[in-house]
Sequence to fold (360 residues):
Amino acid sequence: MEEGSNIDLSFVQRQFLACTPINKLRWNNFSNDTTTEIIAAMNPEMQKKILQKTVNTELVKKYPIKRSYQKAFLKQLINELEKHCHEVHDEVYSTYCALVSSDDGESSTQYRHFLYDENSTCTNAITLQESVSIVSLGTTGLCTWQAGLGLAEWCMENKEILRGRTILELGCGVGLTGLAIIRSCAPKEYIFSDYHPAVLTMLCSNILINFPTANDSLSNCHKDESNINLKMHCNGVNIDVRCLPWEKINDGSNRTACTPVGAEIILAADVLYDDSCFHSLASALKHLLGINGTYAVVAATIRNADTISKFTEILEAYDLVYHEMKLPERKHFIRTDDTPIRLMKIVKSSFTANDDNVKL
Ligand SMILES: C[S@@+](CC[C@H](N)C(=O)[O-])C[C@H]1O[C@@H](n2cnc3c(N)ncnc32)[C@H](O)[C@@H]1O
Fold:
């Protein structure tokens, strides 16, 4: 919190870097101060600090967030200041004008940056390249979903469960959950998997943005369109990227060679939206959870509760049971959306869900 003001610059920065929708942006994390009181604290000096923490950070210059978002952020700031008859710092106007005049069309990809705790700085942000559209190239996997953030939050609150483990993530998308775990939960091995070539390609580039030295240990590199299989070592963690369609995990075809054996914990976020895939996902889980007490933690954004129920209803047919888990309060990641998230632990019906002291 800036001395003598009710503006929390770090909080503003975390929201900006994660592209929190402009209508949900708040100037601090706690008070009920009205906008008038907050804007009153925005003297020109404070406005300059806001610029330095947002549009003008080195991180944004190197990996730009969506230009239209940067413009909307500054426009909102200028509007509020003008509405309350406050002087607008010249640099705020000039930065806004530069963004408007450099408008040579929006790129199809953008970066977002996640500062995953209050004390984190731009130097240890998780930076992700994403598509600007929710669905692009026929996949939902090119941007980060709320349940991915929720699952990362749960993992960071349960580090001791993940430490030293081999973890397999299904439908990993562009990598937020896995990158957060590799950064802060010290697993032995992290296996990212997805089935879409464009998703896997963007994921690989995100791993290298966040762990540039992983490039030095890149090995086992088959990288044709349908069979990406990369291995690298970074931050003390073996990182593996696999093309793993759920349909192929348990179908007895040659592709099962890609199915990792020995994963102790299976993770998946925001994979329960298309019920035509539910049987293949449940069948894959049945296969993967076959070994001693292995369990899955699945996070689902509740857009349509009935769709998720369809999935839980078919689990019994695959000898699986689920247990609802408590989603921790948001501590690490900024919430950019209020849609509720359901978190489930899934195990073989012959095991009990409490085996691993997972906080239910
Ligand atoms: C909504 S996205 C979620 C991405 C990421 N987990 C997140 O939370 O941000 C769903 C992901 O599941 C992947 N997916 C969908 N069907 C799949 C299948 N049959 N086999 C493997 N991956 C699949 C998609 O490619 C996509 O990356």
User: Anything to note?
Assistant: The chain has 13 helices and eleven strands. Residues 9-123 form one domain. The pocket of S-adenosylmethionine is lined by residues 139-141, 144-145, 147-148, 171-173, 176, 194-196, 199, 245-247, 269-271, 277, 280 (CB under 6 Å). The chain has a mean pLDDT of 86.
